[in-house]
Amino acid sequence: MLCLRRLHSFLGILTTLSPHYCSVPLSPKPPTLQFSMASLSEAKLPAASPKLLFRQLFEKESSTYTYLLADVGHPDKPALLVDPVDSTVERDLKLVKELGLKLTYALNTHCHADHVTGTGLIKGKVPGVKSVISKASTAKADLHVEAGDKIFFGNLFLEVRATPGHTFGCVTYVTGDGPDQPQPRMAFTGDTLLIRGCGRTDFQGGSSQQLYQSVHSQIFTLPKDTFIYPAHDYKGFTVSTVGEEIQFNPRLTKDEPTFQGIMENLNLPYPKKMDIAVPANLVCGLQDLV
Question: pTM, whole model, 2 decimals?
Answer without folding.
Answer: 0.83
